[in-house]
């Protein structure tokens, strides 16, 4: 079949075979003994040509693939750095496309004439899949020793890496798991380049077939089917095994689109229109299926690589996981663009590992915040400047910039940094509490123009919330999941804080001797701060969430915010209750004190121990709360305290049996002393006639001692 490595005019041979086959069926050769074996000989010749065409088509379509693979791997091996420079746009140049077109043109025309193109395309598809799998396997085998020899930097893997001197004792899966995340990404990039080279070649073959079919005025299928209808020989050929392939040397044809007209003229012109359409559809379907099957095979191998490390990826830092996630997303987008269909399998694998990453990160943070809360001593700490910067960045991360795009701010530690959910280097001491002298600090963290006093657990929660926002931005497909996790950690923080402070659980787990008003005030500040920033957190998280899901998620976040508001109000109620209980305890001692008021006048104009204790305790509470709580909260609390003082003290004094002048004077001194203290307390109550915190005790004084005494207060 070859002369000087050039093809003979095998189209003429095909025409001759088909012509003789047609003559054999006619009356011209019927009954001639010398031609009794002609049909079998013609069929054998046609089989031989089909085998040659099939083998040469597959050879031309997958030409130099392994050489390209070796070149890619060699470049990576020779790289002196530990990283590979990104992914450049790869495509066949015009010369390569033209050469490929010239090589495939006569082969495709011949296969069309013998009605074998769909069958050969199926063989080509299987070969392409096999070559794709082999190329990926070879790339992994060649690069693994190189990548394993590079130093590991990931804290996640450094303690788990299995040492093997020659690598022969480890399975392939173990070797893949021993790779650092950076080395694994480099391996993925190499596989990406190899797969891309194979798919681009396959896509070009697909394009060439479509181009050839379209440039023969659509007559290929019609002519070949017409030939197939001329006799039983062609029908037998169509049923021939698809796996028969014979290897032959390469060939070359002149690169010219005008060749199409040359081959077009060699095709018969008679056909059945309906059958032609079916044949054409079969060719185009198999042509498309070949490329998609190759993509699907690549997706399967990529997903398998990810699956081997499925237990490691959730434990990675965000930036490390994101590098794997992004290269996989790029791989999916590139291969789907070439293949023309969605890769559901690899998308499912990536989504599954992304969710596992979010779940693991969330579980670790839930465990950490619970441990931090259980160790919390509810002591005010200074706020390092980095936390104010986090809050400021968080507030602006959802605000459009001048370019119209929202700012993207990262709160997660970069790959290679020391991270165990810490709030920053040198910020924690050995006990897990913040080191207040590690860096530039301030007494409060400012949000919305309001300063909030913080404790250790509040700062750590702020850092975690910022990290959740970062995860949501980097993994937008899981934004809804992140919102659920944020709601969950906020609920845990709120519930556990309530148990530890209002429920006095900190006395058991943290070793506190008692829960003081200062502890309550600091807890109120933390709860008030989180309640204030929840709308900001919600707004940032909702940037990537589809409108259809926002309603349900919004209601969930609103319930969380409402729980925080209720908790804050309960703390304030507890502070009022503490003051009420102290007042009642002092009032129970009042009858004993009154008995001493009937002694002869000793010119002692000092208030009684009752009045001193009551005013001292309320003044102390005022001083503590004024240093910690917001002014509006202090006013709301002391409004209730003032009302309790007025009602309880005036009721108790009205029941006293005070008859002697000495006792009346003592009573007057006590009332005036207590009213003097009440006047100084903050309250949002309106005053009567300019008298601050006017109430029942004022009316009692005026009733017992005259309006002049009351006005004197």
Automatic annotation (TrEMBL):
Q: Where does this one sit in the cell?
A: Golgi apparatus, trans-Golgi network
Cite the InterPro entries for this sequence.
Vps54 (IPR039745), Vps54_C (IPR012501)
From the Swiss-Prot or TrEMBL record, what is one GO molecular function term? syntaxin binding
- Is Protein transport there in the keyword field? yes
One of the GO biological process terms: retrograde transport, endosome to Golgi
Keywords, sorted A to Z? Coiled coil, Golgi apparatus, Protein transport, Transport
Q: Where is the Vacuolar protein sorting-associated protein 54 C-terminal domain?
A: 452-582
Which GO cellular component terms are attached?
cytosol; GARP complex
Q: Which spans are transmembrane here?
A: none
- Family membership: Belongs to the VPS54 family.
**Name of this chain's protein:** Vacuolar protein sorting-associated protein 54 C-terminal domain-containing protein
Q: Which organism is the protein's source?
A: Asparagus officinalis
């Amino acid at each position: 079949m070859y002369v000087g490595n050039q093809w003979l005019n095998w189209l003429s041979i095909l025409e001759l075979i088909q012509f003789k086959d047609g003559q054999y069926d006619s009356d011209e050769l019927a009954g001639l003994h010398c031609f009794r074996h002609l049909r079998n000989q013609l069929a054998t010749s046609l089989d031989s040509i089909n085998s040659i065409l099939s083998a040469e088509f597959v050879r031309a379509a997958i030409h130099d693939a392994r050489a390209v693979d070796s070149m890619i791997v060699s470049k990576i091996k020779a790289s002196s750095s530990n990283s590979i420079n990104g992914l450049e746009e790869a495509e066949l140049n015009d010369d390569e496309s033209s050469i490929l077109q010239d090589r495939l043109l006569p082969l495709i025309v011949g296969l069309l004439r013998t009605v074998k193109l769909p069958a050969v395309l199926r063989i080509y598809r299987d070969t392409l899949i096999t070559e794709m799998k082999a190329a990926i396997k070879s790339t992994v085998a060649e690069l693994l020793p190189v990548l394993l020899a590079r130093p590991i930097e990931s804290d996640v893997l450094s303690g788990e890496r299995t040492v093997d001197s020659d690598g022969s004792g480890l399975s392939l899966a173990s070797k893949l798991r021993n790779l650092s995340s950076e080395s694994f990404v480099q391996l993925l990039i190499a596989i990406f380049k190899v797969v891309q080279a194979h798919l681009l070649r396959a896509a070009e073959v697909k394009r060439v077939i479509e181009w050839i079919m379209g440039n023969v005025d659509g007559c290929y299928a019609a002519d070949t089917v017409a030939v197939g209808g001329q006799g039983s020989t062609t029908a037998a050929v169509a049923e021939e095994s698809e796996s028969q392939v014979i290897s032959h040397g390469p060939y070359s044809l002149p690169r010219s689109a005008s060749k199409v007209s040359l081959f077009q003229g060699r095709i018969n012109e008679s056909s059945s229109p309906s059958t032609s359409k079916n044949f054409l559809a079969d060719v185009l379907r198999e042509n498309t299926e070949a490329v998609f099957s190759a993509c699907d095979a690549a997706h399967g191998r990529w997903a398998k690589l990810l699956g081997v490390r499925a237990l490691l990826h959730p434990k990675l830092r965000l930036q490390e996981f994101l590098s794997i996630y992004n290269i996989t997303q790029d791989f999916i987008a590139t291969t789907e663009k070439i293949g023309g269909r969605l890769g559901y399998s690899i998308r499912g694998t990536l989504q599954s590992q992304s969710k596992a990453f979010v779940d693991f990160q969330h579980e670790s943070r839930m465990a950490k915040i619970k441990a931090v809360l259980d160790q919390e001593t509810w002591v005010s700490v200074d706020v390092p400047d980095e936390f104010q910067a986090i809050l400021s960045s968080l507030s602006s991360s959802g605000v459009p910039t001048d370019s119209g795009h929202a700012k993207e701010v990262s709160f997660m530690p970069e790959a290679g940094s020391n991270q165990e959910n810490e709030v920053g280097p040198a910020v924690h001491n050995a006990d897990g509490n913040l080191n207040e002298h590690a860096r530039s600090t301030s007494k409060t963290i400012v949000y919305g123009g309001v300063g909030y006093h913080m404790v250790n657990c509040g700062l750590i929660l702020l850092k975690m919330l910022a990290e959740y926002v970062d995860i949501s931005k980097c993994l937008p497909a899981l934004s809804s999941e992140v919102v659920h996790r944020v709601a969950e950690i906020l609920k845990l923080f709120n519930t556990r804080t309530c148990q530890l402070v209002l429920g006095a659980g900190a006395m058991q787990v943290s070793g506190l001797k008692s829960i003081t008003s200062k502890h309550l005030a600091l807890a109120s500040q933390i709860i008030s701060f989180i309640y204030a920033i929840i709308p900001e957190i919600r707004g940032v998280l909702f940037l990537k969430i589809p409108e259809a899901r926002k309603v349900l998620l919004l209601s969930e976040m609103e319930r969380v915010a409402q729980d925080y508001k209720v908790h804050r109000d309960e703390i304030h109620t507890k502070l009022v209750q503490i003051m009420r209980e102290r007042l009642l305890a002092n009032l129970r001692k009042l009858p004993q004190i009154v008995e001493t008021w009937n002694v002869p006048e000793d010119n002692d104009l000092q208030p009684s121990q009752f009045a001193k204790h009551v005013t001292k305790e309320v003044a102390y509470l005022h001083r503590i709360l004024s240093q910690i709580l917001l002014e509006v909260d202090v006013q709301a609390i002391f409004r209730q305290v003032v009302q309790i003082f007025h009602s309880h003290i005036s009721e108790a004094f009205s029941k006293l049996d005070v008859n002697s002048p000495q006792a009346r004077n003592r009573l007057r001194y006590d009332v005036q002393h207590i009213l003097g203290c009440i006047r100084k307390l903050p309250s949002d109550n309106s005053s009567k006639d300019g008298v601050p915190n006017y109430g029942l005790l004022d009316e009692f004084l005026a009733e017992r001692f005259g309006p002049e005494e009351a006005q004197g207060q």
